[in-house]
Amino acid sequence: MKKYDYLIVGAGLFGSVFAHEMTKKGASCLVIEKRDHIGGNIYTEDVDGIQVHKYGAHIFH
Fold first, then answer.
1. Which of 1, 7, 35, 56 has the fewest C-beta atoms lying within 10 Å of its C-beta?
2. Hey, where are the domains in the chain?
């Protein structure tokens, strides 16, 4: 069984940035995510060349 320095639950903004920064410092990370994409609630989809927030900008208010 492979061992990791960090287990990160969720590939949203914090989880993705944390994993990126730790791997730059040489740590190993395992990121698990229930959705089929990374980015969490800031995820966007391309609709006719326009990036549309899948979960709506209202979640940030």
1. 1
2. 1-41
Contacts of 4 (CB under 8 A, 6+ apart): 28, 29, 30
For residue 10, which phi and psi values (nearest 5 degrees)?
A: 105, 125
Residue indicated by tokens 């914090």: 14
The partner residues of 32 in beta bridges, in order of sequence, read 9
Digit-by-digit pLDDT tens for the chain (61 residues) are 999 999 999 999 999 999 999 999 999 999 999 999 999 988 999 999 998 888 876 655 5
The secondary structure element, H or E, covering residue 44 is strand 44-47
